[in-house]
Amino acid sequence: MDYQQTTLSNGLRLITIHRPEARTVAARFFVRAGSRYDGDHPGLAHMLEHMLFKGTQQRTSQEIFSAIEARGGEINAHTTREYLSLHTVTLAADLPLALTLLADLILHPRLSQEDFLDEKLVVLGELEQSRDRGSALYDLFSRNLWGDSSLRNPVTGLVEGLRDLEISTLGEFHRQRFVGGNAVLVICGGVGHDEALALARGAFSDFPPGPEQRPEFIVAPAIDTPVGAHLERDTRHTYMLLGVPTVGLKHPQRSALKIIELVLGMGASGRLYQQLRETSGLVYSVNAVSSVYEDCGYLAVHAACAPENLTLVQDAILDEWLALREAGISEAELKTAQGNYAGTLARRFETNLSLAGIFGIEALLHQVEPFEKAIARINGVTPLGVQEAAHQYLNEDGYVLATVGST
Q1: How many CB atoms lie within 10 A of CB 180?
Q2: Does 86 fall in a domain?
Q3: Total-model pTM
């Protein structure tokens, strides 16, 4: 794959991925301004994301969207625990316009008091709605998994974190986090490196320099006993997440844990689906999920079942964990999981936007991994390595169980 990386004079890292056959180009900007940096105002980063699209000092919000959409492109943003990201997808010939607009949003947001008060009401409304969505389950799980660390709060924020938030705090957060050392720009598609570099230098010449500000690293908490948390909701099914803390992006056991995730919950052929759905009929749905952050992560099982089956489902999941600890996996299961990983990753590498996202996140966290390297890493996993990881992390005596539904 033809990718190159150049660091601009202000510290902004540029990665280009040239796909000469592509008619379009995706530009994605990543900055270390996710919710783990919210401090005393959970929801601060997400609120800034909203405010970036309220217009700039030169353009209204409508002018920005109209300029992109008139050319059949898109412009959007999202926030995670580790970063805030903005992106465009346009025809390759429209990359100069796309970078001009991205830079304007990033460098010159209007951040007016009137917009801020209006948008705060919108975000508070979103928080109210989120209590009835699936995200409530993951938020409940995170609050009980991560203790008092910066990963515990939901990306969308908390009402108490936003109620007293002032525009001055938002502006200071923007000035502190949006500096060269904290940011990565990825341009992927039908534009070569030299052209993209010249355009990026022009559009982001005013991007302020500044050192990278990494988070205070989190050591996954030791969970020695089951931790339960329930959110009562009038639902037909009970939704559950049962999981444990694991490792971060650069940990050597990350690959073995990915194999465990796939063996347990790869889909209809995974152990959990076959045992809990096909054989026993205890669940309506079940799959394994994981998240890997810069310093730690988690592995969990997500399931939906009848309320009266909750204990049986919990016990069945723990039995599968115990089986992995005691007997491990077969060579055939390992090869199947490795094949699934390769095929899934290949699909993610298909679109410019997705590929820019993969490289951008990894570059931001200093772990750029081209396709071939990722496949080699997963193919290096052995059955013994999987069993060792299962022994270390799948603790049937210590885990977090979060449930949402009727008791």
Answers
A1: 20
A2: yes
A3: 0.94
27 vs 4: CA distance, rounded Å: 14
Whether 288 maps to a domain, the answer reads: yes
Known catalytic residues are 49
CA distance 134 to 239: 9
Quote the domain boundaries for residue 353: 227-405
Instruction: Note whether residue 211 is domain-resident.
Output: no
Question: 195 and 234 in one domain?
Answer: no
Count Cα neighbours of 350 within 13 Å in the Cβ-side half-sphere: 7
pLDDT tens digits for 186-199?
A: 999 999 999 999 99
Q: In the structure encoding, which two tokens stand for residue 166, read together?
A: 């002032």
Q: What are the residue ranges in the chain where pLDDT is below 70?
A: 130-134
The number of beta carbons lying within 10 Å of the beta carbon of residue 12 is 23
Contact 48, 210 (CB under 8 A): no
Note whether residue 59 is domain-resident. yes
Question: How far is CA 170 from each of CA 110, 112, 176, 214, 404, rounded to the nearest angstrom?
Answer: 12, 11, 10, 19, 33
Gyration radius from the chain CA atoms: 22
Same domain as 240, residue 172:
no
